[in-house]
Amino acid sequence: MDLKEVVRRLNIVASLNLAGSWDNVGLLVEPYTKKKVNKVLLTNDLTEQVMDETVNVKADLILSYHPPIFQALKRVTSDHWKERIVARCLEAGIAVYSPHTAYDAVKGGVNDWLVGAFGDAEVTVIQPSTELLVYTHMIMLSATTEQTKEQLQAKLICVPDAKLVMSDSGSAPYVLCCKKNLAECIRALSSCDVEFISKSESVPITGYGMGRFAVPNSQQTIADVVQRVKAMTGLGHVRLALAKQHNLNSIVCKGAVCAGSGLSVLKGVDADMIISGEMSHHDVLEFTQCSVTVLLLEHSNSERGFLSAVLQPKLKEIFENKITVAVSEEDKDPLQIV
Ligand SMILES: [Zn+2]
Questions:
Q1: Which residues are annotated as a binding site for a divalent metal cation?
Q2: Which domains does the chain have, with CATH numbers?
Q3: Where does a divalent metal cation bind (predicted)?
Q4: Predicted confidence (pLDDT) per residue in 44-53, tens digit
Q5: How buried is residue 15: exposed, middle or buried, by Cβ count under 10 Å (0-12/13-18/19+)?
Q6: Which residues contact 29 (CB under 8 A, 6 or more apart)?
Q7: Alpha-carbon distance 142 to 173, whole Å?
Q8: pLDDT beyond 70 at 208
Q9: Which helix (H) or strand (E) holds 306?
Q10: DSSP string, 161-174
Q11: What is the C-alpha separation between 210 and 208, in angstroms, rounded?
Q12: How many CB atoms lie within 10 A of CB 113?
């Protein structure tokens, strides 16, 4: 399958518009010489060990959940491991694609996988994604504006992306524009009677966004949740900070998750137990003293299981089994409990 077609299908799995504005997602490395993609390797982090594995298993595309290029590279030499990876990819004709926060936000993504730790539950999104509105403002003109459609259109000709809506029956015309063009639009319409200007709110997209909140449908103890997390991740040990009045048999009525470093999403959430990858000592204390039990898996351990449990079967399906989809065996969290 052509790389272009592979990327098109990957963008259907999760729209890159869902990613944080600060993020660096999508196709990050594209070899100059075109070749077919026959094998994709999934990894949480693209380390040099995973790079060796990619070459050994002859993969043509690496899907790295975390973007291996985040801060700008000023050179591509063999001095730094990130530069070496880019150089090796280009030399071997291997492409790199990273979805990162688009997979956190998408319905059925990393956080929907992680929230499974609370068992069968009513799940909602903590910070919903919003639909990007093309037009953010509406300028309503008086119905008595004695201007023809053509005259109004001529006034707006120099305002980019402004849209005049006016029926032939002569009902009140209005102009749609975005925030950055609002002042220019008002200037262009200065000779018209403006009735009012309204601002549209972004519309939340149900089921999409950062973090998940769960109300379990059956009785779950903290021990049940810990057990399920271990089964989901294959981890022998996780870090548990019990809230001051909790023990392992306490019932979890409300749970919340945010994979990776979840503090900004989980702060202030009304839950008995939260699950994330990592958090500082003082943040953990703040939660436990405020009656919230904290379960930490290490950063990438809270994300990695999604690759084999959800993404691998999904990609096999969207590539119609024409591409081999493998999960890295070298990829692992750098921290381990010894
Ligand atoms: Zn992460």
A1: 66, 104, 299, 303
A2: 3-100+304-327 (3.40.1390.30), 107-129+206-301 (3.40.1390.30), 133-199 (3.30.70.3100)
A3: 66, 104, 299, 303
A4: 999 999 999 9
A5: middle
A6: 69, 86, 89, 90, 94, 95, 96
A7: 7
A8: yes
A9: helix 305-306
A10: T-EEE--TT-PPPE
A11: 7
A12: 22
Alpha carbon of 101 to ligand 1 centroid (Å): 8
Structure tokens that stand for 212 in this block = 């998940």
Q: Is the dihedral of CA 139, 143, 147, 151 positive or negative?
A: positive
Report CA(257)–ligand 1 centroid distance (Å): 13
Q: What is the mean pLDDT of residues 194-218?
A: 90
C-alpha count within 13 angstroms, C-beta hemisphere, residue 179: 7
Which residue has tokens 């023809």? 148
pLDDT: which is higher, 18 or 276: 276
d(CA 312, CA 64): 13
What is the spatial distance between Cα 244 and Cα 117, in angstroms, rounded to a whole number?
22
**Ligand 1 midpoint to CA 170 (Å):** 55
End-to-end CA distance of the chain: 43
